[in-house]
Sequence to fold (422 residues):
Amino acid sequence: MEFKNMEFKNAEAAGLARYPSAERIGLARLTTMAFDGTDLRPLRDQLISKVVAGTAGAGEGLDLSLITQLLGDKQAGIAIQAEVLAFHQLYRSPCSLEKPKLRVLALAAAIDMGGNTPIEFLLEGSGIELQTLYVVAGVELPAPLPDHDVAIVIASDSEECREALRKIDRATSRWPRPLLNPPQLVRNLGRDKLHGLLCDIRGLDIPATACITRAQLSELAGSNAGLADFAAELRFPMIVRPRGSHAGVGLAKIDNSAMIERYLADRPEQEFFVSRFVDYAGDDGLFRKYRIVFVDGRPYACHMAVADRWDIWYLNAGMALSESKRLEEERFMRSFDSDFALRHQSALAAMADRIGLDYFTVDCAENKNGELLIFEADNTAVVHNMDSPEVYPYKAPQMRRIFEAFAAMLYRRSRHGQEHAA
Fold:
């Protein structure tokens, strides 16, 4: 991005500047198209032709990166993204109003499409302008910063985002506008750190997670001894997953030491997370997993998955194929404030306070003692309104509640909201 010859705003926005931002189709629209079954290959080929002809803009290059990832070629998509971000870092997403009500600056890392908060979904139809500034290696944050009313960090607590978080952190003390989800709090969300943050909250169960190397895990294959060296409560059966993996990739339940070598034979990774297994099946033998969204400290129901397997996430639960499961999810959403959130009110409030982020999600369940069982907390989980209104008629109103709460928080926490409160 060229930071020369920029158009400075007037003195009312001292310390900020207008920069050219590249227009793009964006994550929300492209993902929705893919989710709805649209063939993205013609659009991909059209963008490739523009790149070859030298007429593609930076926004089109970033869209090409997303489409390539959506079509299953993650490595090529990230390579395209790296080339584009090397010369331009500021992008504008589609806005529903010609004259936006509020301007949000999202601070992102150069990572795959799942590594930053998918904030576009949260702002669809809000009339809020979203500009995303990618914080990349070898390029310092622009000085002055791009003009905005409120900023939010959308990079995750992952190895690929660490340098971006450090750069943002160094600038937070002099940030000229309110900054949400500050990097020092985002860095607490790692699986191996979250336990220490939340473990003593009454009514909450969070298994300790330890990071171990492939060699250390292999050493455990011949004996039960040594498990407690990594986490005092660790025992068989235990859960293992590659460090940095999501959506169940490489996730397995290890019942005894003999299963470790069989697991490692199928995995190329060098680092893993291990934790104790918790059987959270209900009296009917089914497992229920919940996603809760926290906006400014308040919890909202996002979804509920029901399945006969412990390694459950929404896409493998077969919710679309079962009316009874959907009815249960609908009851969960409709009664959330008076039932689930009320039962776990103290634990939810304490967790929101400890984590401290303005926006984050939690994937959880209830253990056999009725405690809130925490799997992970994240600031990058997808919260969307793409599901069919015919199959899931109850979802759209709930998603709108979350989106409206998110927009209201941005207004309240922005410079406009602070000036009005004063």
